[in-house]
Amino acid sequence: MGNSDIMGAAEDIADQFLRMTKHYLPHLARLCLISTFLEDGIRMWFQWNEQRDYIEATWNCGYFLATCFVLINLLGQLGGCILILSRNFVQYACFGLFGIIGLQTIAYSILWDLKFLMRNLALGGGLLLLLAESRSEGKSMFAGVPTISESSPKQYMQLGGRVLLILMFMTLLHFNASFFSIIQNVVGTGLIVLVAIGFKTKLAALTLVIWLFSINLYFNAFWAIPAYKPMHDFLKYDFFQSMSVIGGLLLVVALGPGGVSMDEKKKEW
């Protein structure tokens, strides 16, 4: 069996999977995507004093401002998640969550930590895809009404979302000489390039979902660490951030890469 036969068989399996899951895959994608915000909002509630004291000590901003920070994070994240899951004011919810990402990037000094910054940008990529999906739904309400051509901001949101999502995988590459790491890096890099340029996008994104989910279960098993140990919270944070990126990739699988992609250009050739 040649490479083209293997690729064809893999695409057939992916298409069959999409047909079977098309009604609930977008819902699962949205749930995964907002999972890190949901978990963090709940954590703000249960670790209210610790979070407030950390911000107050780090920024020397006083009790009141530190309390406001925690309150904004709690209400902003939980409120945004509720709006997204209920499909109400999704665009406003996305912009609110963008604001939370920016606020946390500054407050927790993530800006100076390349790994965490890349992961936060990947999280923003998932929100961009969600924003693009909500714009699609808005336009579908006016079916039959003449509209400007599809080269709308939505397509560039999808492109930006895809490119930002792959930053998560850049943080998973291991630069050592072991055979397993080399294979993982080569295969992973190939897949993220395919997603970025939008070629065989659904198959590549679905493969990345399986790969990232497997890595996430293995390396971020926070449930195996006692809750009182700091590593428990660290792994839990990593786990849910990865789940959000998985949600973004599932949106790519469910909705396709958009107009600015090689898959779409092939239709015109």
List keywords for this structure.
single chain, 269 residues, mainly alpha, 12 helices, 0% strand, globular
Topology as a string of helices (H) and strands (E): HHHHHHHHHHHH
Secondary structure class reads mainly alpha
3D shape:
globular
Main sheet characteristics = none
| Arithmetic mean pLDDT | 84
Poorly predicted residue ranges: 140-151
Question: How would you characterize this protein structure?
Answer:
The protein has 269 residues and is mostly helical. Helix content is 78%, strand content 0%. It is built from 12 helices and no strands. Helix 2 packs antiparallel against helix 11 (230-255). The longest helix is centred in the middle third of the chain and has 27 residues, at 114-140. The chain is globular and about 65 Å long.
What is the element layout, followed by pairings?
Elements (H helix, E strand, L loop, with lengths): L2 H19 L3 H22 L1 H12 L2 H25 L3 H18 L6 H27 L12 H13 L1 H4 L8 H19 L3 H19 L10 H26 L6 H7 L1
Helix pairs in contact: 2-4, 2-11, 3-4, 4-5, 5-6, 6-7, 6-11, 7-11, 9-10, 10-11
Summarize the structure.
With 269 residues, the chain is mainly alpha-helical.
